Amino acid sequence: MADPLLVQSIRRDAKPLTQAGDYDAIVDAVGDARIVLLGEASHGTSEFYTMRAEITKRLLERKGFRIIAVEGDWPSCYEINRWIKNYTGAAATARGALAGFGRWPEWMWANEEIETFAQWLKAFNGIREGNDRAGIYGFDVYSLWESMEETIRYLRNTNSPELDQAIRAYECFGPYGRDEQAYGAAAAYALGESCEQEVVDLLRDLRMRRMGTNLKDEESLNAVMNTLVAADAERYYRAMIHGGPDSWNIRDTHMTEVMAQLMNAYGDDAKIIVWAHNTHIGDARATDMADEGMVNVGQLARERFGAENVFAIGFGTYEGTVVAGRSWGAQAAAMRVPKAMEGSWEDAMHEAGVASGWLLFRGRESDYGERIGHRAIGVVYQPQYERFGNYVPSTMSARYDAFVFVDRTNALKPVVLEPVLS
C-alpha cells in the first residue's frame, strides 16, 4: 500500500496534462535553465515520446532552445539532422532518414512518433537559417564501426590530410569483424593490441585542425564528433569486459561531453534538450547507483554546468504496454506492463488519482525526500520478473526537478511490430 502522506502530497501538488495548454506550465517552470533533461521509464512507450515532443516544441518556440541530443547513435541521428535541415544529399522523406537505424534496438528511433516529430522539426526549420535552426543529434557511444566509417568518408570527400591516419586507425579494428565484444576482450586481456592510441591520436589531430568549427561547416563538426565517439567507444568496449561501473561511467561521461561540444558549436547562448532514459537523466546521487560507484548525465550535468542551469524531468507509468525484447537482440514485441509494485512511486501516483499529470519538486523537497522504489524498464524486459530488478530506490525530489506521469500508457509504433504478448 502506498504511503498515505505521500499520496496526500501528490493529490495536493499534481497538475493536469490533458490539454495542449497544460504543457505551458512545465515550460514556465524551466525558467532560465539552459539544459533540460527529459527522461523516460522505458524505451518503448508512445506517451513518453509524444509528451517529450510537446515539451520540446515549446522550448524551441518560447525559450530559444536549438539543440536536441538523444540516446541514440551519432551517425544514425545525424541522418535525421540532415533531413530536418534540408542538407544536400539528405533522405527524401522522414521515413527515409529513419532507415539508418539498423542497430538493435532500432525501434527506439525508427518509429512513427519520431517520424511525426521530425516532420514538425523540418517545418520549424523551414523559415530559419544557420544557428537559428534546430538540430537533433545522437550522444550515445555504441557506434564504433559506423563512426569510424563516417570519419573516413568525410576525410576522403574533403581530401583531408588525416585520411591515411583514419584508415590506419580503422584497419586496427579490422581483425575483429565488427564484433565489439571480440575487440573488447582481446584488448582487455592483452590477446591483441589495443587500438586506443590510433583513435585518440586521430581525435587530437582533427580537433587541433578544426578548433574553429561552427555551424557553417557542420559536416566538419560531424567528422570530429564521430572520431570522439570512436575514441570513447573503444574505451567503453574494453571496460565492458571487466564489468563493474567503469563502462557505464565512460558512456555517461561521453554523453555529457557531447552535450558540451554541441553547446560550444551553437554559441555562447546555446540551450540543449536531452532525451534519455530516467537512469541517465535523473541524478545518480539520489539513487542506489551511487552506492555502486556509478555516475550519470543528470549528476555530471549539474556538476559541470551548475545545478541552476539544469532542469531534469522524469517520466513514469502505472501500467499499459511497451515495446521491448525478451533478450538482447531479440525480436521487438509489444508486452504488457503489469500494475506497479505496491508501495512504489508509481503506485503512489496511481493511488493519488493522477491519470495524466505532472509534479514540480522544487520547493517541495521535504514532501518527496524519502527513498522509494521507482520503476525502470530497459530494452530487454521480462514482465514476470519485474519486481526483482526493475525498481530503483530513489529520492525523487533530489533525482528530478519535476515528474510527468501517465497512469496507463501504450507501446510506441515501430515501422514493424509483432503482436502483443501476454
From TrEMBL:
Q: Which residues form a coiled coil?
A: none
Please report a single Pfam family linked to this protein: Erythro_esteras
What SUPFAM superfamilies does the record point to?
EreA/ChaN-like
Q: Which InterPro entries match?
A: Emycin_Estase, Hydrolase/PRTase-associated, UCP036794_erythomycin
Q: Name one GO biological process term.
A: response to antibiotic
Q: Which CDD domains match?
A: Ere-like (cd14728)
Family annotation (PANTHER family):
ESTERASE, PUTATIVE (AFU_ORTHOLOGUE AFUA_1G05850)-RELATED (PTHR31299)
Q: What is this protein called?
A: Erythromycin esterase-like protein
